[in-house]
Amino acid sequence: MDNKEILLTMRNISKSFPGVKALDKVDFTLRKGEIHALLGENGAGKSTLIKVLTGIESMDEGQVTLEGKPIHVKNSQHAQALGISTVYQEVNLCGNLSVAENIFVGREPMAFGRIDWKTVNKRAKELLKNLNVDIDVTKTLDSYPVAIQQMVAIARALDISAKILILDEPTSSLDAAECRKLFSVMKQLRAEGMGIIFVTHFLDQVYEVSDMITVLRNGELVGEYEARNLPKVELIGKMIGKDYEQLQQIESSKKTSHEAKENFITCRNITSEANIRDLDLDVNKGEVLGLAGLLGSGRSEIVRALFGADRILSGELNVNKKRIKRNKPITAIRNGLGYCPEDRKSEGIVSELTIRENIILALQAKRGMFRFIGRKEQNRIAEHYIKLLDIKTPGREQQIKNLSGGNQQKVLLARWLATDPELLMLDEPTRGIDVGTKTEIQKIVLQLAEKGMSVIFISSEMDEMLRCCGRMVVLNDKKKLGELSGAEINEQIIMEMIAGGKSV
Amino acid sequence: MKKGIFSRNFSLIVTIVLFLLLFTAGSLRYRGFFSAQVFLNLFIDNAYLIIIAVGMTFVLISGGIDISVASVVAFVGMLSAYLLRNGWNPYLVMLLMLLIGSTGGFLMGYIIHYFKIQPFIATLAGQFLYRGACFIISTSSILIDNPVYSTIANYQIKLAPRTYISISVVIALIVVIAGAITAKFSKFGRAVYAVGGNEQSANLMGLPVARIKISVYVLSGFCAALGGIVFSFYTLSGYGLQNIGLEMDAIASSVIGGTLLTGGVGSVVGSMFGVLIQGIIQTIIIFQGNLSSWWTKVAVASLLCLFIVLQRVISANRERIRRRMLNDS
Fold this sequence. Notes:
A: Rossmann fold, six-stranded mixed beta sheet, B: about 5% strand
């Protein structure tokens, strides 16, 4: 790889957001004719690095050079002018325009002062043919599946400029055949000397096309590796922050598995609108069940389906031995389920409301609109949980947005605890929270389970999962790979399962 | 997949078919309805609304809304009447009106884009401002007796014996044609569709979103002022309470003509037919003779419901097709 000409270097890139260091002195190098995978878990800094490179965010410090010349990217238009094009995860095109227009809008070829539609359509057709896509380009973009839309986005990116192509999670909505098509296009472009940055969380795909791999973790550079010299298990270790060798030495922290195996939830053959397919899952009373897997493995989608946030299309869901036909969040709440979503800011807290109001929300919903909870009782409940969970605040009437992330999370916990749930589903409850609070939350989870509550626990941090979970379901690619319980739970086995992508 | 192309123009086709049906129905039911002049009167009586609807269409396609246009018409009528009474040159007055309309549009567009104010609120402020300003000029109506205005107002362009159109109709048709060409064949026009389809995407595709968004309000302000001038030819007076609710007629015309209020879809020609449909309903009611003219609103209300539901069905259908393709592929 060393003989290839260097196209782009990013050196010592740092970027802070209020309270978070998103990038800390990160280096990144891209060479001509190279597909370079940029990997890391949630919050590792991948997208911030991409945003810095494409001018959407400005960096605090660092240098970027393109073909040896220092550049300072001002905005996405400027990035395009420099030859850096991005295809985002969500197709950033206009569904209401025709395919051809999407490729040419803003730079349509003109003839006699008007847009020359014939040329537009002809050239769009040719561009897409080069990518092995043969479609009617005069139809609107939204009449085609996402895979085609992705190709159109790539065609546009290539036609505008062709030095660096950034593909940000391009395959998350593609199926296997569509991915192969995309990969063959990527390889073709690589052969033409383009540098491609490939951001993904599908590790198989990384190995299928990438030459180089750069891993980020917590805003820091873990390292740059040649793909063929980095076994997948080691790669996963680097992403989640454990050395493979180290792991082999660690004794798995054994958990006493609860002998009382009374079932709370049974799922059979559940298929959800978020692409969970034919899932079988049992949740027992009083256990902490971990859903292990990388980002995008389906761990969040499972709890969303159980909570009725995603529609269940087929299969059987039983809660407390009762068959649930039409699952909606309110049904789930009344059946004793609680759910702290992954995205605390947009799906969890209501930032303008006070702590008391935030805590009461779910309980009020559970009781129904017309059985208003009196102010006195509200105060009592709020005070109770502020004390119980040690929420650090000047008072219950503070707006929740003024609290730190950890305390906000505790308020959300309180919201669900107030409903006295039988199953609490926590999706990344400790993300972006200081270490002290993290341990507190873990302790609370274990205490709750001891008292007989069931908990589904999701975290990107293996350590935390090992500490909390009595049983683990390992997921990859929205499929269940297997289950581990008690003494079987072992980081190394989990990593091997994910890496192998096969059931145990 | 022919269905896709068809559904894209489906609303427009329905609008035109509906217009023809109404015209046929009127012709069969009423004596004297089926004549070229009845048809042309639709244009003569609604020229100003057609012009305003063209500007409105661009705003709606961009995903915005402009509810200031009716007040602009009233203000333009009022101020022109006032200035003409004070002996201003009529051509200078017209030029000034167009300038005022465009500048007002620019200011509203600027506020909408840079201060991220909802278009409804920003143009509501404009609406109040223009309407209030009318009454600063005068609380009663002012007649226009300028000879240039009267000549233009009364001039008849003979197309055939006893068949004529007014100069306003010519202006309106020019605006429609220019608008249609702009929408379909200019970079600006296509960019308006892109912004309305997905503003964030348009920005990431490198389109000058700020300029486009502000421009549509300038265009709408210009069209409203031009509509106001044409309207003062029509009434030869200015009055502050003139045309209350006209902005909604313009919006309704656009929607009936196939424009989506969510932006990204619509056509200038469709909006013109939207105006004509409202006009023909009114004509039918006049021919009927024993109905209040407010029945026009009732009829338009039912049409609006019909079209909104129709559009919803079409887009839901398209979404379903897309999903099915996703799952199949």
